[in-house]
Amino acid sequence: MQKRTAAISLTLLVLAGCAAQAPDVAAEAASPYPIPDEVVAVAGPNQDLTTARLDPADDCYWYYHAGPVETTLVPLRAANGNQICNVRAS
Questions:
Q1: Given 23, 38, 49, 89, which residue has the most CB atoms within 10 angstroms?
Q2: Could you confirm whether the keyword Signal appears in this record (predicted)?
Q3: What is the DSSP letter of 79?
Q4: Cα–Cα distance between 24 and 81 in angstroms, integer?
Q5: Which residues sit opposite 66 in a β-bridge?
Q6: Which residues, 6 or more positions from 80, have their beta carbon under 8 angstroms from its beta carbon?
């Protein structure tokens, strides 16, 4: 009887750890992309914006493209094909 009670108690403890957590409202309100909304608006289709980042070396945005053989860093492009970069101050 003790083994059965212990097994049930252990099962309940494990399942309690799997309980759904309350959603974080602030996290849901935030953009899922680590780049500004303006960049998201001009970015072309079929690019993984969740991996996009600004490269400080050239002040342009890059993202990881997962190809069939390798994953490589490629420039983030606008819908017209131009690379998306910040304007540098003179």
A1: 49
A2: yes
A3: T
A4: 37
A5: 71
A6: 44
Q: Record the tokens describing residue 36, joined without a space.
A: 């500004």
- pTM score over 0.70: no
Q: How far apart are CA 11 and CA 16, in angstroms?
A: 9
Structure tokens at 41: 């608006």
Which residues 6+ apart lie within 8 Å of 20 measured at CB?
A: none
Q: What is the C-alpha separation between 51 and 47, in angstroms, rounded?
A: 9
Report strand pairing: 71-75 vs 60-66.
antiparallel
Task: Say how far apart CA 59 and CA 57 lie, in whole Å.
Answer: 6
Q: Which residues pair with 73 in a beta bridge?
A: 64
CB 49 within 8 A of CB 63: yes
Q: Where are the alpha helices (DSSP H) in the chain?
A: 2-17, 25-29, 37-42
